[in-house]
Amino acid sequence: NAGVMQNPRHLVRRRGQEARLRCSPMKGHSHVYWYRQLPEEGLKFMVYLQKENIIDESGMPKERFSAEFPKEGPSILRIQQVVRGDSAAYFCASSPLNRGGEAKNIQYFGAGTRLSVL
Amino acid sequence: QQQVKQSPQSLIVQKGGISIINCAYENTAFDYFPWYQQFPGKGPALLIAIRPDVSEKKEGRFTISFNKSAKQFSLHIMDSQPGDSATYFCAAGSTNAGGTSYGKLTFGQGTILTVHP
Question: CA distances (Å), B112 to each of A108, B29, B82, B90, in order?
Answer without folding.
Answer: 21, 28, 13, 12
